[in-house]
Amino acid sequence: MSKTVELTIDGKKVAAKEGDNILKVARENNIYIPALCYLEGVSSLGGCRVCVVEIRGSPKVFASCVTPVAEGMEVITDSERLRRYRKWAIELLLAERPHVCSVCVANGNCELQQLATELGVDHLRVDRKWTNYELDLTHERFAYDPNRCILCTRCIRVCDEVEGVHAIDLMLRGKNSKVIFDLDDKWGFAESCTSCGKCSAVCPVGALYVKGKPLSEVKKKELVSFVMSRRSEKTIG
Ligand code: FES
Description:
By secondary structure, this protein is of the alpha+beta class. It has helices at 22-28, 80-96, 111-118, 154-161, 198-202, 217-236, and strands at 4-9, 12-17, 52-55, 61-63, 74-76, 142-144, 168-171, 178-181, 208-210. The strands form three sheets. A five-stranded mixed beta sheet has the order 2-1-5-3-4, with helices on both faces. A two-stranded antiparallel ribbon has the order 6-9. The protein has a two-stranded antiparallel sheet with strand order 7-8. Mean pLDDT is 91; it is low at 232-237.
């Protein structure tokens, strides 16, 4: 049986299962930490660094989605330094690819856009290095715009760990990284794709989406909980 540990988050005493990450425990206790690549129910990546927190006694900041809780830990989720770092993380993502909300299918239903607003990102302090990838419209139901992708890998993890297919992966490194289907096939010709739609349901931006049907926020939430309920069934079974 897993051990229970006690810690404080923003001064609030909480109990948690040993091994759980700080972000999960904070959410279970209604404490808000902004996050982007994290998706409950699949493995954590720690890629976007939006979820950084401070832990008393350490000069460093920690990605809360990949930092396990520990007995006596004192977590701080909000400070001027954390807001500054989170803002930088969002600015760098916005600079890397052409995120022009007004012409994006996810406008008004985009987690990157919501966080940029929340963190007060009204301009970028770095040069834009925008991409010009070809749009993939070969699948009959779904579309993929690599120019909107923030490389959060939620789609990869959900395809692998929930659908059990691993039709999606990353190729290349750093800013040249690109989400691909099978061996960089066009989506419509990726033989291992089951067309389940889970990847588009969990995409936080407008990179993977259902053709001709911009998702309303409500529908998106329903889809994400459906995806995660499938996860529970698999775990139980
Ligand atoms: Fe933790 Fe992205 S949500 S690093």
